[in-house]
Amino acid sequence: MQDDYLSTSNYSAQANARGALANLRKAGSTKLDNSPLALASVLSVLYSPLSDDEIGKNDWLTPSEKAVYYSLVSFSQHMQGATTKAHEPGIGFAQACGRLYAVSSSNSIKPRFDAMLLSRDENSMAVHLRSLISLLRNAGLPFDYARFAQDLRILVRSTKNAEDELARNRVQLRWSRDFASGTYFDRSAETAE
Q1: Is 162 exposed, middle or buried (0-12, 13-18, 19+ CB in 10 A)?
Q2: How many angstroms separate the CA atoms of 17 and 4, rounded?
Q3: d(CA 49, CA 54)
Q4: What's the gap between Cα 92 and its chain centre?
Q5: Which pTM was predicted?
Q6: At what angle do helices 122-139 and 109-118 cross, to 10 degrees?
Q7: Domain boundaries in the chain?
Q8: Rounded to an integer, what distance in angstroms lies between the CA atom of residue 39 and that of residue 65?
Q9: Alpha-carbon gap, residue 70 to 149, rounded angstroms
Q10: Is the terminal CB of the chain with fewer CB neighbours within 10 Å at N or C?
Q11: How far apart are CA 29 and CA 143, in angstroms?
Q12: Where are the beta strands (DSSP E) in the chain?
């Protein structure tokens, strides 16, 4: 979708990608729990569908459905008006936020990142995530949305058994390290110049 959106030669594909991203942004304007059509919009643009284990079979959203929703809605927001990539394999979300922190004069980035990472409430997480995505978009900083979705799947799990808590702690630890490495990456690039 990103390649089609940024294409300058295939106007039909570009228009389709723009329309799909606009629909995803529209889906992201409502709370997921209150809008079954939002989930349908997101699931319909997946290139490879969720597996039978990942798709819900009851009245509750699965962690995979939530992760795909938040990831694709964030991607659509990140691509709004973009002229460069929003998805870049190998660059973690937290690393991109660290880079943003390093190049920004704002002191609110780290507290927003921490609040998003530590939030146990999905609505609160979504608010902080939207603000960070907006800042990343404005700074032209991409990250790996596939890895982001995998991590979100762990962070949005509602069960609180010891195994889930350990997985959550591992993501939080990795993101903390990635944030720090993002700040160091940009500082070392500045001193090399």
Answers
A1: exposed
A2: 6
A3: 9
A4: 10
A5: 0.86
A6: 140
A7: 2-192
A8: 8
A9: 8
A10: C
A11: 22
A12: none
CA 175, CA 151: separation in Å to the nearest integer?
Answer: 9
Question: What single-letter amino acid sits at 169?
Answer: N
Contacts of residue 106, defined as CB under 8 A and 6 or more positions apart, other chains included, come to 135
- Mean pLDDT of successive 10-residue segments in the chain (193 residues)? 82 85 82 74 74 78 88 93 93 96 91 91 89 95 96 84 89 95 68 44
Q: Which pair of tokens denotes residue 18?
A: 């723009």
What token pair was written down for 38?
A: 């939002």
pLDDT in tens, 34-66: 777 777 777 777 767 777 778 877 777 888 888
Largest separation between any pair of C-alpha atoms in the chain: 56
Spacing of C-alpha 128 from chain mean position? 11
What topology does CATH give the domain 2-192? Peroxidase; domain 1 (1.10.520)
Euclidean distance between CA atoms 96 and 142, whole angstroms = 7
